[in-house]
Amino acid sequence: MATVHVDGKSYQMKAEENLLHGCLSAGLNLPYFCWHPALGSVGACRQCAVKQFKDEHDTQGKIVMACMTPAADGTHIGIHDPEAVAFRAAIIEGLMLNHPHDCPVCDEGGECHLQDMTVMTGHAYRRYEFDKRTFRNQDLGPLVNHEMNRCIQCYRCVRYYRDYAGGHDLNAFASRNTVFFGRHTDGVLENEFSGNLVEICPTGVFTDKTLKRHYTRKWDQQFAPSICVHCGLGCNTDVGEHTGTVRRIVNRYNHDVNGYFLCDRGRFGYEFTNSEHRIREPLHKGKVVSAETARQQLRDAAASRKTIGIGSPRASLESNFALRTLVGPDRFYSGIADSEASLVELTIDILRRGAVRTPTLHEVEECDAVFVLGEDVTNIAPRMALALRQSVRQQPIEIAKKLNIPLWMDHGVRDAIQDRKGPLYLATPYATRLEEIATASWHAAPDDIARLGFAVAHALDSHAPSPGNGDFPLATEIARALKSARKPLIISGPSCQSEAIIQAAANVAMSIGAMLSFTAPECNSVGATLMGAKPLSAAFRAIEDGEADTLIILENDLYRRAPRPDVGALFKATAQVIVLDHLVNPTSDKAELVVSSGTFAESDGTFISSEGRAQRFFQAFVPSGAIQESWRWLGQDSWKNLDDVLAAMATALPHMASVHDAAPSAKFRIAGAKIPRSPHRASGRTAVLANINVSEPKPADDPDSPLAFSMEGTTDHPPGSLIPFVWSPGWNSIQATNTYQKEIGGPLCGGDPGVRMFEPAPSRDRSYFNGIPSAFQPREDEWLLIPMHYIFGSDELSLSAPGIAELTATPHVAVKAGDFMEGEKLDVRCGNDTVRLPVRVLTDLPRGVAGLPAGLPPLAGCDLPAWGKIVRIA
Ligand code: SF4
Ligand code: SF4
Ligand code: FES
Fold first, then answer.
1. Relative to the alpha carbon of 410, which ligand is closest?
2. 791 Cβ inside 6 Å of ligand 2
3. Per residue in 585-635, pLDDT tens?
């Protein structure tokens, strides 16, 4: 640590950091624009100017940029030095010359970093009287809005988009003193992380277009800490609500998980909660019934020995547990297709064996050699792909270290590194987005990918089983790269539906003690699997054999879990179907009783992420109609709140007892007060519903959490899991996140949310798997149909979000170039199902392999990979 003297007071700062980082970490207010904790310093905006003195006797000093000056021991600086103050005021006056000053109609107003910094510098009077420079805005697609006149040329957007997220289609276009930040022409932003521009841009140039459709100021929204429901990574989010509709999702900082960024599916997928296809009241045979009637019907049904329950990997642990308790463990069935369930179980078993560590997403960023087996990471676990884009810089960064370039000096580091990347090796059935940063990639059928993995493990440890005489020149190269790395990482998962790939990945990790990360298909696949249940196929058999005649289905569209003909036959044979869900779907269409269950925004509960991290999400608002958590619909009379459900779960399933610690209980208070869900609004308490009643109605009680449906309470030092929104005096924008961290960019003061359920075990059972498959043999008249994943399309819920739906791929069959013509219509036979699909030609698919979009109707339930026929239409 270094001792730095600021305005005559001494502070301890990290010597390897810069003065801006040090000052902000010490809680000092110093304005800035171009610097960002994740992007480092470039010294572009000149806003963070301070006066630096030679020593305590120097009265002259010189102006320096705090973000470009090391926090060296013995440094003397003045933030409040009059020249530094005047310099910063002059800079912001210059930046504001062309600014439209349209705060009242700007979507950023009230939570704008530019507004905050303008107030902080004291710039209050506009002297410039001439014409302002103006721009034409672009249509950047359904997710991000563009209003270029508000730009202050800080360059954060292009640095984030191009350098950090690897995007290509956004840039700075300059002519004389005019700089334009946008695409070369109108069009949808191509990068999957474009939504982060909304938070990266310190002004209102890039804003959330989905929020614009139902705009509400930050201070009029009610927030709750939440967890993304659109993949298995468990990114932390804040849900913003106003008058009963979710208005937006913003990033919720968790140092261990998503840090400052979300993917676009996670940020914009929320719109499904406001869909016109929501189930808002219980319906019996299509007619609205009261909540009491629905609850009684559920209980009556559950009392019969012939009723069985089917759980869900997208429902909370608590809701799955409530159904399990209602029907009894012997009548509770998994909501995941058998093949996928057994693979998720295998990944959990490997991690619970504790031979190797599964990394946090933050640790993924720090890994310096990565081998991916079978996973299209960008489309399956998007935020992990963004982490991998940082990990490929770890080895090259050593060059900058040798040149004594501080790592926060972004351009210096990038100049030193140039285009060097990796090592990152990809073995996938088809080319993926990460290929552009990969050291080498290999496209093969799942069995051959597994064989490559076994070969790498054998090259690393001769005791690991070998695939024999296979031709794997890449194996030696990959093994060498992993062996020479400081923090090697292996990534795999169930996406190829191959047990052998998962086992091969485990062998590689065990052979050198590398970290091992498995993806999970859905937000609670790991939790639902850990809970344990009979296989889904057994539920089908129980109905078929007449052992059961009534189904209670929890938040699950079975048409996505099994082939259409099989699900159709199941419903035909079932006397009564009861469905609890948020949206109408093909399964709810078959139900006699449909029960309106709350989405993540209307519920409290817990998910377990692919890292094995149990994380709590909280209700953002009390919904209208008869919507409530599935666990409330299904729960026991003795359960009065969420804590009761968690306590019952800990008793029934002791291996899940630590789930309780994912967040403080409902009794938690700070100085005797609850934590408010709403920021203070200057317009007062009554304004929001003044058109209905000028008296403020009593806020709803929340028996389940320490959060209040109110702006009253205390926000002082909340635990990390209970931060509904970020705000500090003088910091109204998302940059207020800084004030919640132990140090800038570090863990939260109140601890990072979540409890890890898998840690390396002292025993470290490292016995190798040896189920090496035979080499893939293409067939003459059949194709191996494999699932292809799409960030926009493969996830069920975000498909009902208009913004995401606009970007969703249309159903198709992907085949190798030369086999068929692009756009040609083919009949694809998969099991007992045949669908007609247009061709998409992919040059890199292996011979004999064809791809079908995972999760997209009409083949959403097809059990892939499977051999199938592709027939040209005569
Ligand atoms: S668009 Fe925003 S982030 Fe980009 S340079 Fe302008 S103000 Fe900065
Ligand atoms: S990476 Fe996954 S969990 Fe994170 S925001 Fe995207 S969809 Fe949600
Ligand atoms: S933040 Fe230091 S120059 Fe921009």
1. 3
2. no
3. 999 999 999 999 999 999 999 999 999 999 999 999 999 889 999 999 999
